[in-house]
């Protein structure tokens, strides 16, 4: 079973509007293409190329599904499905008897197309089956044509919408859907029975199937055979279509047959019920046994766990004791090393102190020896011959005296040299002062001459003005005499003041010389 998207919903027939289920006619064709003989080694025919050529031949119509059903050396059989039966009929008209040419082949390939035959049973099939079956009683339900066997129903389409059980199908929904054709006596969905697999005797180790949870198998039993016939006629040549709440349509091809195994007969139902009860008891006993085994296993595991915990604790205790012993040994070693280091340090300090003490004692001993030697020498010198001692003393005194005189002579020479340098410096300074004094005198004399010249010029000018008038001659003479006297007195006073200035300047110079002499002699003392 494959669920496909359905784009065309024009031919659908209502099945259950509440559940969103509809029936859609199956528009499926079989296409057979005869193949040429392959004459060259390595030559092959592409099925994909054949499919593309077939698709181009039916345009503008399109296949909804197209697949290879069978491929042999003589022919290739395709199966194609359309959205509408009208498109299927047009495609059959276009393809049946048509020829195609493949690349690499000179022959034309002939094509045959026809509507695909369905395996859906007809009324004659179930009537002949139940008529010929010897173990069937047409008077009993389940042993007559009243039960529909459905396979490939999508689980989600028959699930309760608001029960919160996900995609599991519901018997109530299945009953409600098929009550459209008449009253339903019983329904059965084997996948909802957890014991059905054991009841049917199937192997508990089943192979994986992708459709095991997506689709399901179901049995629907009507009370009247006419309802069964009505339902079979309605489903014949149809596939199921589901329209969800968003308006999306999906189609699924389902397999429909009448029940041939008396699945919903009273005897089969009673047998399954009894078997189920037995299985429930067996399951209960098995669960109790499993529970006991589990409890025993848990007890055993608990004992093992406790034993393992005790062992681990013992190991941990031993490990801790071992680590403690190692730690104690390490601490003892560190303590010994620390004591050794302290002892070495103490011994080094003691050695240093002892060396210092020995050095100090040695120094004291040497000093004492020196003092003793000096005393002994003094005693010995006193005991030496008086003449030699006096001569030696005289010689030493002479040498000391000579040394002293030489030192005094050198000191005198040094002082003389310093005095010479000082005198030379003072002489240079005195010469400089004398030169400054001479320059000052010359400047003063030059100023005096200039003053006298200006005064004489002034007197001449005044005398010239006086001599210009005869009436004032006498007064002019008197004035001239007075002016001459005054100028003479001024010159005299100026000449008298010049020596005073020079004497003051020389006195300051002498004081400066004395100050320098004092400053010079002070460091020598």
Question: Would you give an account of this structure?
Answer:
- The protein contains nine helices and 14 strands.
- It is α+β, with helices and mostly antiparallel strands and 525 residues long.
- The strands form three sheets. A five-stranded antiparallel beta sheet has the order 1-13-12-3-2, covered by helices on one side. It has a five-stranded antiparallel beta sheet with strand order 5-6-4-8-7.
- 58% of the residues lie in helices and 15% in strands.
Task: Describe this protein with a few key phrases.
alpha+beta, elongated, five-stranded antiparallel beta sheet, 9 helices, 525 residues, 14 strands
Q: Overall mean pLDDT score? A: 81
Quick one: biggest sheet? 5 strands, antiparallel
Report the total helices: 9
Shape category: elongated
Q: State the strand order across the main sheet.
A: 1-13-12-3-2
The SSE string, one letter per element, is EEEEHEEHEEHEHEHEHEEEHHH
User: Helical residue percent?
Assistant: 55-70%
CA(first)-CA(last) distance = 138 Å
What's the count of strands? Answer: 14
- Enumerate the spans where pLDDT stays under 50 for 5 or more consecutive residues: 202-212, 470-483
Class from secondary-structure proportions: alpha+beta
Oligomer: single chain
How large a portion of the residues is in β-strands, by DSSP E?
15-25%
- Specify Rg, calculated over alpha carbons: 75 Å
């Amino acid at each position: 079973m494959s669920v496909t998207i359905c784009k065309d919903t024009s031919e659908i027939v209502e099945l259950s509007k509440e559940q969103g289920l509809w029936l859609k006619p199956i528009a499926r064709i079989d296409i057979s293409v005869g193949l040429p003989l392959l004459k060259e080694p390595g030559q092959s025919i592409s099925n994909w190329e054949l499919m593309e050529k077939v698709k181009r031949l039916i345009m503008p119509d399109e296949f909804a599904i197209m697949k290879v059903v069978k491929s042999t050396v003589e022919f290739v059989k395709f199966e194609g499905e359309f959205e509408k039966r009208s498109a299927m009929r047009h495609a059959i008209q276009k393809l049946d008897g048509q020829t195609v040419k493949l690349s690499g082949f000179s022959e034309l390939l002939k094509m045959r197309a026809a509507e695909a035959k369905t395996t859906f049973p007809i009324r004659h099939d179930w009537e002949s089956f139940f008529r010929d079956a010897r173990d069937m009683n047409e008077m009993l339900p389940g042993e007559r044509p009243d039960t529909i066997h459905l396979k490939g129903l999508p689980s989600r389409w028959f699930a309760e919408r608001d029960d919160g059980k996900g995609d599991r199908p519901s018997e109530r929904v299945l009953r409600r859907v098929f009550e459209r054709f008449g009253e339903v006596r019983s329904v059965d969905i084997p996948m909802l029975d957890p014991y059905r697999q054991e009841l049917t005797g199937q192997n508990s180790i089943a192979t994986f199937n992708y459709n095991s949870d997506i689709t399901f198998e179901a049995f629907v039993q009507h009370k009247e055979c006419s309802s069964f016939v009505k339902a079979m006629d309605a489903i014949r040549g149809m596939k199921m279509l589901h329209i969800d709440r968003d308006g999306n349509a999906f189609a699924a091809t389902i397999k429909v047959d009448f029940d041939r195994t008396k699945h919903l007969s009273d005897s089969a139902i009673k047998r399954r019920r009894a078997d189920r009860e037995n299985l429930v008891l067996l399951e209960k006993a098995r669960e109790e046994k499993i529970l006991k085994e589990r409890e025993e296993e848990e007890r055993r595991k608990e004992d093992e766990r406790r034993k393992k915990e005790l062992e681990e604790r013992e190991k941990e205790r031993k490990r801790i004791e071992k680590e403690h012993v190692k730690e104690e040994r390490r601490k003892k070693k560190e303590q010994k090393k620390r004591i050794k280091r302290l002892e070495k340090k103490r011994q080094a300090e003691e050695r240093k102190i002892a060396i210092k003490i020995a050095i100090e004692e040695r120094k004291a001993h040497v000093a004492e020896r020196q003092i003793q030697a000096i005393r002994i020498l003094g005693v010995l010198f006193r005991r030496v011959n008086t003449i030699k001692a006096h001569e030696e003393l005289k010689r030493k005194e002479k040498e000391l005296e000579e040394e002293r005189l030489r030192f005094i002579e050198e000191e005198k020479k040094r002082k003389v040299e310093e005095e010479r340098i000082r005198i030379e410096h003072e002489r240079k300074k005195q010469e400089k002062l004398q030169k400054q004094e001479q320059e000052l005198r010359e400047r003063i004399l030059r100023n005096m001459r200039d003053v006298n010249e200006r005064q004489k010029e002034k007197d001449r000018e005044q005398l010239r003005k006086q001599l210009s008038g005869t009436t004032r001659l006498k007064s002019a003479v008197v004035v001239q005499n007075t002016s001459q006297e005054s100028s003479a007195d001024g010159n005299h006073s100026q000449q008298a003041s010049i020596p005073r200035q020079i004497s003051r300047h020389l006195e300051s110079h002498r004081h400066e010389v004395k100050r320098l002499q004092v400053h010079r002699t002070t460091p020598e003392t």
